[in-house]
Amino acid sequence: MALRRHIPVQLSPYQGASPGTGHNGGPALDLSWEAWLWRRAHAQAWKPPRREIALHRMKRAERLGLDYKAYAGVLMNRGTHLGAAIFLLDDLSSAELSQAATKIANISDCAIFASVCDPTVADAAMAARADVLVASRDERATSRAIDRFILAHRLTPGGTFMVGTAPAHLRIAEDCGLALFLWAGDYFNAPSN
């Protein structure tokens, strides 16, 4: 029987020399045809829209209490306009809740679902503006209530955004497949446009 030579296994197909002086250690440039097509399509998708379209999107974003970048991002990623807002405000103090109620009352052209600890102490403006006002419950019950709200208003999860106060709310938004999640502190403390 002939002796076999031991050939070491090379795990990486390429083990080049260490980078020389002046190299930042970053990845190699991708100069493939597919990468060029992707960069071109990305640039076309994100090119600035015509003035009228940008103004329309900005007005719509202001009516929803969002900034232009968040609204345009949802529009580009999901391909749909936002038509519903979900507010899960369980962990807000009474002062924060009254501030939130003022901003929610000013939202127009949108269906609103609001969840608070106790609906009887909710601000009258928020109670009047919200299409659905419920007491906060467990995650599963809240997810089901949100699904019923979306179906009742003939909306899609991709056209709905959520403002929440707890990590559980982020999980609910992900489970329901909502287009955007914002933390209540960021949404309600953002400067008005």
Which architecture name does CATH use?
3-Layer(aba) Sandwich
Estimate the global geometry from the Cα principal axes. Answer: elongated
CATH class: Alpha Beta
Domain tally: 1
- Report how far apart the termini are: 84 Å
What is the helix content? 40-55%
Helical segment count: 8
Provide a brief overview of the structure.
The chain has helices at about 35-45, 50-65, 70-80, 95-105, 125-130, 140-150, 165-175, 185-190; strands at about 85-90, 110-115, 130-135, 160-165, 180-185. By secondary structure, it is α/β, with parallel strands linked by helices.
Description:
- With 193 residues, the chain is an alpha/beta fold.
- It has one domain (51-188): HAD superfamily/HAD-like (Rossmann fold, 3-Layer(aba) Sandwich).
- Helices cover 44% and strands 12% of the residues.
- The protein is built from eight helices and five strands; from the N terminus they run αααβαβαβαβαβα.
- The protein has a five-stranded parallel sheet with strand order 3-2-1-4-5.
- β2, α5 (124-129) and β3 (132-135) form a beta-alpha-beta unit.
- α6 crosses α7 (167-176).
Write the layout of secondary structure elements.
Layout: H1 33-45, H2 51-64, H3 68-78, E1 84-88, H4 94-105, E2 111-116, H5 124-129, E3 132-135, H6 139-152, E4 160-164, H7 167-176, E5 180-183, H8 184-188
Parallel strand pairs: 1-2, 1-4, 2-3, 4-5
Helix pairs in contact: 2-3, 6-7
